[in-house]
Protein: Keratocan
Organism: Phoenicopterus ruber ruber
Amino acid sequence: MALKVYTSLLLLFLVNSVWTRTVRQVYDELDPEHWSHYTSECPRECFCPPSFPNALYCDNKGLKEIPAIPARIWYLYLQNNLIESISEKPFVNATHLRWINLNKNKITNSGIESGVLSKLKRLLYLFLEDNELEEVPAPLPAGLEQLRLARNKISRIPEGVFSNLENLTMLDLHQNSLLDSALQSDTFQGLNNLMQLNIAKNSLKKMPLSIPANTLQLFLDNNSIEVIPENYFSAIPKVTFLRLNYNKLSDDGIPPNGFNVSSILDLQLSHNQLTKIPPINARLEHLHLDHNRIKSVNGSQICPVSIAVAEDYGFYGNIPRLRYLRLDGNEIQPPIPLDIMICFQLLQAVVI
């Protein structure tokens, strides 16, 4: 199970990266004839590397408008400009676009022409981070795989905006202005293949409703969440990485066995208000509990199996899999209790 999860996460990491060559070297590699061929349709404000003919670099140019995009372009870089609007005209011939980076501009929802994004039928990656959006733009291309909207002013998610995005694997909404009321029971409906959901650094007080069932990574850091509902994670049985750092979780806000979930391999609960370690599953590998209010650690109490059983299993037995435990920033005094080491025989690092 863990191997399958790590394989999926590796694939997610790889699609988050796009290989590009160092474009400056083309000046020395190509003769004027080839250069003329590749730059004949290149907007004068941009750079079209002949060694990467499907890419158009218009970043860091002080642009206020999107230039006309040649038909051959798949990868469009427009970040770090002063662009306020997205209209249909520049994209008339750009029917093959797969990737658009519009991070760090001044785009507002009113500046996005109606339907312009959904007409980009082949678009897979859309980056609109660090803009002036107040709601998730709609409609979106049905084939989209990644949507990054971090660091905007988003407080609203239009009804049904994600309903046709069955291919979306990553949705990043962190550092916006989302309240609990913005996340309804059907908000994420349609995201059947979502793997990563990032809603960190918003204004949530409750765990969001109806997280897509296939979610592997759920990031909820830097909110004001106080309570984990009973059986919350049974609805997302594949969740593997869970981050709840910098919230307001206390012992009373966590139900018995709330985090005793076999799918979770990495659990981060740093900077909360816990006074004891919550029950964990034997499959958990990384546990972050630093900067809480924990005064002592009792291995017999936190061990997912009895200490006697853990000791009898030996190194090669079916023992708890915890490898990393972080407890600094609490009131715990060293040394590490011996029963911790007896229980968690695979521990490689303990920070205390």
Observations:
- The CA atoms of residues 145 and 168 lie 4 Å apart.
